[in-house]
Design a protein that fits this description.
Blueprint: E1 14-20, H1 27-30, H2 41-46, H3 56-59, E2 65-68, H4 80-88, E3 92-95, H5 100-108, E4 113-115, H6 117-122, E5 128-132, E6 137-140, E7 146-148, H7 154-162, H8 165-175
Parallel strand pairs: 1-2, 2-3, 3-4
Antiparallel strand pairs: 1-5, 5-6, 6-7
Helix pairs in contact: 7-8
Length: about 180
């Protein structure tokens, strides 16, 4: 499975168009169980959120941002869900809150997930956001508003910078930093 090329650098700003979904979006809505017979990111991306937002992946541009309500990623603990979102082109997911297992699975595969209740409630679909994962600062470039989400602790930024947990561990082992 080929990884998307962009990995997060501590000083990177993520920038993209907002796509919105509501509360309690479970992993079966993100990627339906009927597609779990394969695990390639490109394949999963083709079916990402397809029952909720048909043809979404044809419209998403690399770097776009998914904004969700409460309890995003609830349901089963499948890793396929954050993989589908990452390969669909989303640079990050911002939500009012995340299911705990989804949150950690996303970090482990290198997809930034940012808790920012105010953004989930105030930001409309279609605006352009700029996100600083290291600080949690989120700017609505369309409407001129600035919001504050939860910043990542340094160890999570290192995992995201490496592209996920496995590349992070490989990097540490190769440098003998373990």
């Amino acid at each position: 499975m080929a990884e998307p090329e962009k990995t997060l650098d501590k000083v990177d700003q993520l920038k993209g168009k907002v796509w919105k979904v509501g509360d309690d979006i479970d992993t079966d809505v993100i990627i339906a169980a009927r597609y779990l017979n394969r695990s390639e990111g490109e394949y999963l991306a083709e079916h990402c959120l397809e029952d909720l937002l048909p043809n979404l992946t044809a419209k998403v541009k690399p770097g776009d941002i998914l904004v969700a309500g409460k309890n995003f990623g609830c349901g089963s603990s499948r890793e396929h869900a954050p993989v589908a979102l990452k390969y669909a082109g989303f640079s990050c997911v911002i939500a009012h809150s995340f299911a705990r297992i989804f949150y950690r699975n996303a970090i482990n595969i290198g997809l930034p997930v940012i808790v920012a209740p105010e953004v989930a409630e105030a930001v409309p679909e279609g605006v352009i956001l700029e996100v600083e994962p290291a600080t949690g600062v989120i700017r609505d470039l369309t409407n001129g508003q600035t919001y504050r989400g939860e910043a990542f602790p340094p160890f999570m930024l290192e995992i995201l910078s490496a592209g996920g947990a496995i590349p992070y561990v490989r990097k540490k082992v190769n440098r003998r930093d373990v």
